[in-house]
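Regression check, zinc ion case 58:
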Amino acid sequence: MEPAPIIVCVECGGRAHLISFAPPDQEYEPGDQLIYRCEDCMDRFDIVHDDIEGPEDL
Ligand SMILES: [Zn+2]
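Current build output:
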């Protein structure tokens, strides 16, 4: 599961880019911290990976 490289900034509606990277040879897992920075307002967002995934099958 790859996290979205760009999300919509909740502050200004601009584009927030993923600036954190998974360790080499590893993939993101649910619960990992993702860091995004908005290119317009330069705000930083820390998002838990699981938050931006679709609904899980339980
Ligand atoms: Zn913004």
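Comparison notes: The mean pLDDT is 86. The two ends are 17 Å apart (CA to CA). No diff flagged against the previous build.
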